[in-house]
Inverse folding.
């Protein structure tokens, strides 16, 4: 224990108080012991620090900060050094605003395109997610403050996000959903990690002994603080026992009493509390001095320039067909007459909605910047209603403008309501009015460039009407300038997709039950996420994982390979400087234990001048060939021949080498079980029997309907007229906000929130005994429930006053 002398001087009440928030974004302090409050702030793509009244979802204003491109965009750069620079800039801004812990990056796996929070996450592949997140963490912590990678773990949907139970087999858990976090822990040593809202195989992540103690702390050696997601704690004592440190945001003294009662009952040891307090003191003592020493301002212009660089590298040229002259439409030559069309050209869609929303220092738009380019700007028209619906007047004006230009640049996007924390997407399509406008513009001017802004993939049939499509993802406050840099040829595009773009949602193996509206989210597809499924099952896709075009061309050669590394040469065979992202995949065509057709084992981004060649070496480890064996509970390797595929995308293999490994000789963990569906990747509709065989045990039954973890969205299924009214009010507000295209984030948060979160989010006004009284009311014990709630409310006030006095008295000794 690192701070035993301090801990020994604290009373049990003082120690328990340190393990929770005192405010929406600050922990308790103890002046007598010299333990400062730890200040947290949201920050996956910029600092959202609320200097005044704070709230979880950012409806109240926050201090100006640089809105960097979201994770989806920076991931498309495949540039770890760039990610580290972005992280360092965010960390510097956080420290300048008094923030000790920046809550990010997010590295959940993109299991399905409809996850409303995909824009905050890096990839469908854990290697990319882990490496990019680790780079962010190193950059943030370079400033002396802490990064907080999230959400640990198996957090893939927003629907029922605080009470959804992710049912997943152990191999899939290890290979897909934990591997990125393992990379972050082992290679960047984050000082904190955020546990996720959801349950994992029947136990809340924040009190899951297998996850927090067995894997995170004991196996990976994580020694930092685990922070609950805001309102994500279910049983604080159970969490503390297995390794959860901070219960956030501000549960009040009822939470302290829960710990005291657990110690008195013998279900929680004081030694466990001391371990957690040691983590609190270590965090506070290491980050707070850095914040105190940090300058009070940052170079906003330099950070804006970095944001533009990151957005530029993250742009992916999806399509660039030849025009009538025979050359690709992009880049546009100087003097080209262009019409700028689309509501998003004036008011960009540049970040996601929710707790990641940044109060940007400034925001560039295409309309503001196009006049600064070498293009001949003919004019601007919005063309369509932002949130859908027909408007012939807007469309006709846009068509008239398009006819008068050499090239029409269309800014298309998913709108704000389509992608938001708290709600999953309802489909993959762009709004119909945007697609219709594109078709009509193409009819009057075939030279169309689409600039597409979206946090995840969209249906792409409409792209047949556009010879050039540049995916800008969500480019942050400087994304407009980045797009124009690519369009004009000032920068050669180099971004590549870190998620597969399916042709249609029905092709995605999890689509049959995503998002799950039931209590369980069953991960029946197993390891077959993203390209692992599409490449194994041989399903056609719109754009494969790793795809991205360039204004130049690259040749690969001189391959040498072993089980330790792969070395090859990349040559720029074109006429302009550019960067290539080379990828190495491992395949084992002949295997006993089922596996994906290939898995990414490494990558490198190579900058090359015209005609230049570079030798590239990508290291491999034993894990590059291994699978997780549930029988031995270890990573094992099958003996035999493996292919090492050097590729420009998962479906553009340039070079192949073969190596033979001896293997570890482990038994087949699936012997005697019918996993034929997984052997053939036939996982679009997995039967109960097949999923049971994958799990290795019966599919868990769902729990009781009415209890502490009943969500507000389900109150209409209770027996309380009072809560029927509550449900109707919430439903009405949510519906009106959805129709207006402006998601009410606080309502969305409450809609998917379980009742027990009332005891975790109200700063002590409500405790768990009061929640239990509400449950009685909902179950139909109307008068008894109300009377019990009133009694518990009074008792809670009295107990809070007594305990507060006791803690204050102890702190003065």
């Amino acid at each position: 224990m690192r701070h035993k002398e301090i801990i020994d001087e604290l009373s049990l009440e003082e120690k328990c108080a340190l393990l929770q928030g005192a405010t929406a974004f600050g922990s308790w302090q103890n002046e007598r012991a010299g333990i400062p409050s730890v200040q947290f702030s949201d920050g996956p793509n910029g600092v959202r620090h609320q200097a005044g009244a704070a709230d979880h979802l950012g409806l109240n204003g926050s201090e100006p900060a640089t809105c960097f491109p979201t994770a989806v965009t920076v991931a498309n750069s495949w540039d770890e050094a760039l990610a580290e620079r972005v992280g360092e800039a965010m960390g510097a801004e956080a420290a300048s605003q008094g923030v000790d812990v920046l809550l990010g990056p997010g590295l959940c796996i993109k299991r399905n395109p409809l996850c409303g929070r995909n824009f905050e996450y890096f990839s469908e592949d854990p290697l990319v997610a882990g490496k990019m997140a680790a780079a962010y963490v190193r950059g943030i912590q370079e400033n002396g403050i802490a990064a907080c990678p999230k959400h640990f773990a198996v957090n893939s949907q927003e629907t029922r996000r605080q009470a959804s139970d992710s049912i997943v087999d152990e191999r899939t858990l290890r290979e897909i959903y934990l591997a990125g976090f393992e990379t972050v822990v082992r290679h960047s040593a984050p000082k904190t990690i955020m546990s996720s809202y959801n349950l994992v195989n029947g136990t809340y992540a924040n009190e899951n002994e297998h996850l927090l103690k067995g894997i995170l702390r004991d196996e990976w050696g994580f020694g930092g603080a685990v922070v609950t997601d805001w309102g994500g704690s279910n049983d604080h004592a159970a969490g503390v026992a297995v390794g959860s440190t901070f219960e956030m945001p501000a549960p009040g003294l009822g939470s302290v009493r829960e710990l005291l009662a657990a110690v008195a009952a013998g279900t929680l040891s004081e030694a466990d509390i001391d371990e957690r307090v040691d983590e609190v003191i270590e965090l506070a003592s290491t980050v707070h001095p850095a914040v105190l020493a940090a300058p009070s301002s940052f170079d906003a212009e330099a950070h804006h320039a970095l944001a533009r660089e990151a957005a530029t590298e993250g742009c992916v040229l999806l399509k660039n067909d030849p025009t009538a002259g025979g050359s690709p439409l992009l880049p546009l030559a100087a003097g080209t007459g262009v019409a700028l069309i689309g509501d998003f050209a004036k008011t960009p869609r540049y970040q996601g909605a929710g707790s990641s929303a940044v109060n940007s220092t400034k925001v560039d738009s295409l309309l503001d910047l196009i006049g600064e380019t070498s293009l001949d700007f003919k004019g601007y028209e919005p063309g369509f209603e932002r949130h859908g619906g027909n408007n012939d007047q807007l469309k006709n004006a846009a068509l008239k403008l398009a006819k008068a230009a050499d090239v029409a640049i269309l800014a298309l996007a998913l709108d704000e309501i389509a992608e938001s924390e708290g709600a999953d997407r309802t489909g993959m399509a762009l709004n119909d009015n945007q697609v219709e406008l594109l078709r009509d513009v193409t009819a009057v001017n075939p030279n169309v460039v689409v600039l597409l802004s979206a946090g995840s993939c969209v249906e792409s049939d409409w792209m047949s009407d556009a010879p050039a499509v540049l995916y800008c993802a969500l480019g942050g406050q400087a994304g407009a300038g980045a797009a124009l840099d690519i369009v004009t040829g000032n920068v050669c595009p180099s971004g590549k997709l870190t998620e597969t773009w399916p042709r249609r949602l029905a092709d995605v193996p999890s689509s049959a039950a995503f998002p799950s509206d039931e209590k369980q989210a069953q991960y029946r597809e197993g390891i077959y996420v993203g390209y692992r499924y599409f490449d194994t099952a041989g399903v056609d896709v719109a754009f494969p994982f790793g795809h991205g075009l360039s204004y130049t061309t690259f040749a690969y050669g001189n391959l040498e390979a072993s089980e330790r590394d792969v070395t090859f040469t990349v040559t720029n065979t074109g006429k302009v400087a550019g960067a290539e992202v080379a990828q190495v995949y491992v395949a084992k065509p002949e295997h006993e234990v089922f596996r994906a057709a290939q898995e990414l084992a490494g990558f490198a981004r190579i900058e090359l001048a015209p005609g230049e060649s570079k030798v590239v070496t990508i290291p491999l480890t034993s894990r590059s060939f291994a699978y997780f064996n549930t029988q031995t509970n270890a990573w094992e390797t099958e003996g035999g021949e493996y292919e090492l595929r050097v590729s420009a995308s998962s479906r553009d293999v340039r070079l192949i080498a073969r190596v033979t490994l001896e293997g570890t000789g482990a038994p087949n963990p699936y012997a005697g079980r019918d996993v034929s569906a997984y052997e053939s990747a036939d996982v679009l509709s997995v039967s109960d029997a097949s999923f049971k065989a994958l799990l290795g045990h019966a599919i868990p039954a769902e729990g009781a309907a009415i209890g502490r973890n009943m969500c507000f969205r389900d109150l209409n299924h209770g027996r309380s007229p009072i809560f029927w009214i509550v449900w109707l009010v919430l439903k009405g507000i949510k519906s009106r906000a959805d129709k207006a295209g402006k998601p009410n984030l606080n309502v969305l948060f409450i809609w998917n929130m379980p009742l027990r979160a009332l005891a975790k989010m109200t700063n002590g006004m409500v405790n768990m005994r009061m929640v239990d009284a509400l449950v009685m009311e909902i179950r139909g014990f109307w008068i008894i429930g109300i009377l019990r709630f009133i009694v518990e409310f009074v008792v809670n006030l009295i107990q809070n006053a007594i305990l507060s006095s006791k803690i204050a008295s102890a702190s003065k000794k």
